[in-house]
Each structure stands twice: as C-alpha cells, then as structure tokens.
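re: ur question from yesterday

yeah so i grabbed the chain u mentioned. its 253 aa long if i counted rite. heres the sequnce exactly as i have it in my notes:
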Amino acid sequence: MGTVLDITERKRHEQELARLHYAIDHVEEAVYLIDEQARIHYVNAHACQGLGYGREELLGLSIPDIDPDYQYAVWPHHWRDLQTHGSLTFETRHRTKDGRIFPVEVVANYFESDGQGYNMAMIRNIHERKRMELALAEREQEFRTLVENLPTYVMRLDRALRHTYVNPAFVAAVGLPEAEILGAHVGAFWRATNVTIDAYTALLMRVLSSGAREDVSLEWRSGMAPCTAIWCGFRRSTAATAKSAACWYWVST
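ran it thru and got these structure tokens back, copy pasting raw so excuse formatting
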C-alpha cells in the first residue's frame, strides 16, 4: 500500500512539474535560471527564439556570453546586490547568436534551493519601446524649438496649477527670472483686471478634469497686452502609468 501511495505522489509531482514547465515555456517573455557563477541552468522557448540559439546551446553559455554589459568583472557585484535586495529591475542589452544587440528590461529574483543561490530572471525585449521613446523625444524637441521662438506666451501647468514650463516670451512679459516662475502657482503673477483669479483657477480645473479646450479674454493691469488665453488639457503616458493632465496655455496677442 505504501508503494502505491509513493508512486501516486510521485506522479502527482511530475504532473505539476510538467504543467509548470509548459506554462513557463509559453510565457511571452524570456525566462532564465542563473547561478552565482553566471551560468545558465534553464531557459524557456521565448529565450531561445529571442537570441537565435537552441536550448542546449544556451544551456552551455553564461550571462557574459549574451550580455555585453554584464561581464565577469562586474558579475560578483551584481550578484551581491541581488542577494541584498532580493529582486532587481534594470535595463541592459542582449546579444543574439548572429551578433545583433538589442535593449532588454530584466526583472531578477533571488532564491535559494539546497543551499545554492539562483536568479530567476524574466527578460523583456524593449527595442520597440526605446524606439518610440526616442521618436517622442525628437518630436518634443522639435515642438520645444518652435515654442521657444514664438512671440506669443506659452506655459504649461501641473494639476496643482504650478508652472512647469514657460517660454521666453512669457518670461520677458513677467519680468522675472525663469527660475522664479517655474514651480510658482499661476496666481503668483496674476495681473488681469477683467477676470478674478478664483474664476480663472476654476476654468483651469475644468480643463484639467475634462480635457476640453476653453478660451478666455484677459485684460492686464500693466506690462502685457490684452490677449485670449487658450487652454487645453492633455494626458501624457509613460512606461509606468499615465500622468495626470496638464495645460498648455497659448496666448494670441
């Protein structure tokens, strides 16, 4: 009877292990099991496909063979850092069998089994994300160059209605250094005579809430010509989350 129970228990464990291997092999991220000497003990199918190696080929390699940024000279420090923190998320680069290098994001997790330390690493190819970030940065630089040279006033506010950007035309109109304007509340430099600051901030909060454009005509006490303020809300997405809306303020004089 004891033998039958032992066989049944063994088969149950084998079935659980088979299901686990199947699940890991079908994860849409590369999975590596790595030891303290940077040797690779396990890889899933996605890891093999991403680097162009067969499974047995990869199991014969170490991390320095596939990662130009984590060579043997830096590996001991990295391992100690992983042991200390238990989990690390960082970016590095991987090299395929044919020599192509691409950026990756690594989520490394430290654990011990039978007295031996291991890193179970989940690795994601972030080439497309990096390409989009670069394209966005280039577009933002083009837009900033345009805005910096506009004769009209342009500013950006955060949800607390503090200045996060002002163009040179606005700085010149206010007559204060840019450093004193940035971070200051929109009411700090309020000079309009036909709209109260309370009414103005209420308008801004509506824009932030709805994202819809609102226009308002402003007449100033001094230093600035009458104008129309055009406020638009927007949301900015990042790799982590969507940041709360801010306002671009375009003024036609």
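noticed a couple things. The chain is about 40% helix and 30% strand. also The chain has a mean pLDDT of 85.
anyway ttyl
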